[in-house]
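Input for the complex:
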Amino acid sequence: MVEYFRDQFFGLPPVALEAAQVVFLPLPFDLTVTYGRGSAGAPERILETSYQLETFDEETHVDFAEAPRIFVAPAVHPRDGEPPTGYLARVSDAVRDLPPARFLLSVGGEHLVTYGIVRGLYSENELRDLTIVQIDAHCDLIDQLEGEQWSHGTVMRRLLAHGCRFIQIGVRSLSKEEYLLAQGNPNIDIYYAHELHQRRQALLSRLADLTGDVYVSFDVDGLDPSVIWSTGTPQPDGLSWQEAMAVLRALFSNRRCCIRAADLVEFIPDPNPPGCDTTACKIISRMLAYWWTGQSR
Ligand SMILES: [Mn+2]
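Predicted:
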């Protein structure tokens, strides 16, 4: 009988950080959630479930049993009574402590964790040249959600203030405030779900032509609920699996931009496993397979 390592991705034997090309960073944090809870359990469930996946990716022919090697970093756990900003600062510190030249794949947790990751990865100057490609039903550009500045619904507004640019894909739930903000802001480009079919080629060309630093933030509610329903604030009419993969493929095969990191957020482990658990694992393995294929060409 094969032995699986339940705390490693794909259940593979642990590898040393020095020998890894990918760092998997668990961020079990869902403090500011306003509706469905439970995304804090996602990193652990995803690791536990991932041994169910084949290490071989049928599309890219990457075999994770060979390469790339994945190092699972210690989780950054929230502390009792700690404000969200305290947690985010510790996430940034954990990211800064990682050796460079490794791909960082962070798994939330709620979407607010993206702020901590991005601040840890890039200096203030670099943030002004960073493009965040966000697959999401929501813009997360609200200034304050229920009076709270630091929330899953405000995370991109906080990053916008640092000068980041945004390409938001699959949006189908936003406030008038966010709509008007995006309309007048050259740094925000929204590909709404209802027009995605028409603008698909334009979007893929845009992604294939991106230059500079790019960060990929994958909120699972960007997908259609028929693909992933296990998320805090689901919305109908999201991206199909194939549409989402086309987006990731276009991005990771673009050699003119530099993608050092990605995240997967807002996934809630299924109360009746497997549910969507293995689908969430497969998003991660696909992102890594596309990234690795882009590296080795
Ligand atoms: Mn969302």
